[in-house]
Amino acid sequence: MNRILIVMSAADTWERTDGTSYPTGYWAEELAAPHAKFVQAGFEVDFASPGGVLPPLDAHSADPAVAGADCGRHLEHAEKALREFGPLLDLSDVDLDDYAAVVLPGGHGPVVDLHQDADLGRLLTQADREGKLIGAVCHGPAALLSAVDSDGKWVFAGREMTAFTDEEEQLFGTADGAPWLLASRLRERGAQHSGGQAYQAHTVRDGNLFTGQNPTSSGPMAEAMIAALS
Q: Which residue spans adopt a coiled-coil conformation according to this UniProt entry (predicted)?
């Protein structure tokens, strides 16, 4: 099996507790770096989202002051990959039997929609049960929260993982007014969450589950998944 599924959020807005709306979308590096790594390793990559909706770019991910000097390269790759793929697949139509792995990039969108998406929850539950690889980076691990069994138990409770930390959310300026903070919510649900130095690459593997802390972790996470798939 030579295909990878990248699942994107369809959200473009994050509603805040103070009543304001924060524009969001996909984070260029978190989509581009894994996509480039997988393609270079010989994998075919498909994109999917709830309803097949293509979210906008998170403008912060194209700002060198925020996303680093390589952000232009990541944006160019992400836009080319999405343009060449065409319309995204609708999550509800995805057959997981077609894929060796599922990858969940961030941007703040996953804390808006993917964390409670029933179609994604079904796919992730199946993927974990069958031992397929699952990768999630930055805010992407919020999507793991969608996977609950018939008794309402979180499938990934007790697993070791990382995600965008509360400290990083504070440093980014989005902690105040956030309905909930990702790392704290993962721990509340039973994850064994660990964080590395803020904005430095940090990845965690627990069996078939691969997670990365922040955008810088996107490439290393994909490399770890490729090594496991090989």
A: none
d(CA 218, CA 118): 25
CATH 3.40.50.880 fits 3-229, yes or no: yes
Tokens of 153: 């138990």
Residues 26, 105: contact at Cβ < 8 Å? yes
pTM of the entire structure?
Answer: 0.97
Q: Which tens digit of pLDDT belongs to each residue from 97-141?
A: 999 999 999 999 999 999 999 999 999 999 999 999 999 999 999
Which of 105, 101, 90, 153 has the alpha carbon at shortest distance from 124?
101
* CB within 8 Å of 136: residues ≥ 6 apart: 103, 104, 143, 144, 161, 163, 209, 210, 211, 212
The residues spanned by each domain of the chain are 3-229
Query: Please, which residues have CB within 8 angstroms of residue 165's CB and are 6 or more apart in sequence?
Result: 183, 195, 198, 213
- CA 219 from centre of chain: 13
Which residue has tokens 């293509």? 54
Contact (Cβ atoms closer than 8 angstroms) between residue 94 and residue 5: yes
User: What does 176-223 look like in DSSP terms, one character per residue?
Assistant: TT-SS-HHHHHHHTT-EE---STTS--EEEETTEEEESSGGGHHHHHH
Count of Cβ atoms closer than 10 Å to residue 122 Cβ: 16
**Within its chain, how far is the Cα of 193 from the centroid?**
16
CB count in 10 Å sphere of residue 152: 6
- The pLDDT tens digits of the residues spanning 90-100 come to 999 999 999 99
Closest CA to 91 of 134, 46, 141: 46
